[in-house]
Amino acid sequence: MLQDQIALVTGASRGIGAAIAQALGRNGAVVIGTATSEAGAEQITQALQAAGIKGQGLALDVNNTEQIDAVIDQIAKSYGDIGILVNNAGITRDTLLMRMKEDDWDAVISTNLSSVYRLSQAVMRPMMKARQGRIISISSIVGHTGNAGQVNYAAAKAGVSGFTKSLAAELGSRGVTVNCVAPGFIDTDMTRELPEKVRDDLLAKIPLGKLGHVDDIAAAVVFLASPSAAYITGETLHVNGGMYMA
Amino acid sequence: MSDIEQRVKKIVSEQLGANEADVKNESSFVDDLGADSLDTVELVMALEEEFDCEIPDEEAEKITTVQQAIDYVSANLK
């Protein structure tokens, strides 16, 4: 379905990003996954090889524009132009606003929102020339519902949604679609850190009665990347078991 | 026609999908050749690539016709 397409997935060493990398690869894409450390990059390379997927892991700090340019250059030389960008890298620095340090705010905005600006800008030119391309950002249910203790994370994720709609309007005439996938409560390292009481309360709010799996998110990304989704742009696809119905 | 003029016109016609014969010196990208805002940005980027130069945004804004593009490139080519 995605034969010979080149996909770049940020934050691909574990969790949702790792599942997205695998799913895109299973559908025929060449996958380049990034991680913040060399060890993470190596882990991605091995996971891709083990699954027989063409591509590799690369170390990248999505806060660093020079590194981004270098990585895009390297991908262009080794594989070709990126046709699918998945902005997945993200961090949390949860705390109540009363206690939040400016550094907690800045780090989350930079990694979760400004990185989407940096990476989208870095890959859009070849997409515009090719008159096709997919930019898919992983936002969050929290960007739509809000969540106590996550003003930074929720603001960044809501920002990604506004960014997506605006860029979709800019690039529509060039055949490039720009969309979000908004996960609900997915079973990952990030959500395993939550206290049990919080987890139980959240579960009670999910009509489907269980946590989401990373593959549920990956499937939504594959769909948006596929030719079947060519007429969908500026949209957020919520994958949350009914926890929030847009 | 000078070499620069020829190269500029070729790029304009390629970028805007216009017939080369329709690309005249006095042609306005937007009014005569049907460019939208994204087209004009792409056009400037294509000129930068072709002539290996960087056109600052405030200069790029002033380039709205084929002649203005030729003049800018002629004046600033290394």
Automatic annotation (TrEMBL), chain B:
PTM section of the record: 4'-phosphopantetheine is transferred from CoA to a specific serine of apo-ACP by acpS.
Residues the record lists as O-(pantetheine 4'-phosphoryl)serine modifications: 37
GO biological process, one term: Kdo2-lipid A biosynthetic process
GO molecular function per UniProt: acyl binding; acyl carrier activity
Database matches in SUPFAM superfamilies: ACP-like
Biological or metabolic pathway of the protein: Glycolipid biosynthesis; KDO(2)-lipid A biosynthesis; Lipid metabolism; fatty acid biosynthesis
Source organism, top-level taxon: Bacteria
UniProt domain Carrier: residue ranges: 2-77
PANTHER family on file: ACYL CARRIER PROTEIN, CARRIER DOMAIN-CONTAINING PROTEIN
Family: Belongs to the acyl carrier protein (ACP) family.
Record protein name field: Acyl carrier protein
Organism field: Methylovorus glucosotrophus (strain SIP3-4)
